[in-house]
Amino acid sequence: MDPTVTLLFSIGLCLHWVMRAQMTTLPRPSLWAVPSPVVPKGADVTLRCQGHLGSDRFQLWKDGELREERNASWELAEFVLRKVDDVIDARSYRCRSGQGPWWSELSEPLALVVTEVFRKPSIGASSGHMTPGTTATIWCSKQGSSQDYMFALLEAKSLQVLQHQKATGTRADFSLPSVRAEDTGSYSCIYYRKTAPHRGSHPSHALELTVSGPLPKPTLWAQPGLVVNTGTNLTLWCSRPKLPSLEEVTFTLSKAGTREPLRQQSSADSWASFLLPSVSPQDTGSYSCAYREGRAPARGSEPSEALELMVPGSLPKPSLSALPGLVVEPGTHVTLQCRQPPPSSLWRVTFTLLKGGTFQPLQSQSPAGCWKLQLCLL
Asked: pLDDT value at position 141?
């Protein structure tokens, strides 16, 4: 190639990358700590950096200096700190992600607090028993000056940070406005140095907070689907929110129209499965689930949203037709019309539209006093 042409090509390529770099701003990644940014001295912690779609390189920075760089897939990288030290590792961390020749901005800083260095603080509350909708105040105090320290309210078992607070005098007040039943649990607090190294105290003793009222409702879903053929093995899954105050609970499965629960199952997990083997048309109906604490006084949850299960076979087969026809141009408005057989003329029935090969309804409607239903597809 002619030297002049080669030079022009190189200049053009360089300008291309410069312009691309100016036009490309990679989103700032997220950095968090597992299991928590509050770590006992000598424990292990994992720092996870979540980048933008397509990120394949990651850097971890500590106190403004590059600590480690690595390649990773799935837009996520993990940096493991083993046996953390209260001086070397109790620092401020940031990360950034890269793609091609570009790097993102640095993430928001994450302060890693290493505890069990100072004496534990005291913890107290305005009341240990609250009614829903009221405001709970939890205070944390230490001996001596608090000028150079921050306070943190923690979930006592996991050490997850719930709130940070500056001190007022020798204590900090944490407010939980409009508490709900799910705020019931064990709380603790620590104090730690504002500046690096972020050395922290032993956690305070656990404070038990109880909020009266029903627990939040669970979620119920079906596998393989809501419409299944006779003889199919069906599993109903009941899932509750993860609440720190709950350990083992009893899940209950109920069917509308029956007095007693169909199934009960105790579990320390946040979910339970109920198997309905070889279902028949008699299993058609409305199902719900709930859960209850194992310890006294036991609180129960609200029931889940009702799940309508259908096992075809007990009623005459309907007919399905398409208007304007079965072969249409893209963008055409299509109406699928489902009809009961003329001899049946049942009232208060539910029509359900399915797509071949799936068990989940596309649409369901219950037209009052109608023997046919028009389901429109755009």
From this structure: 96
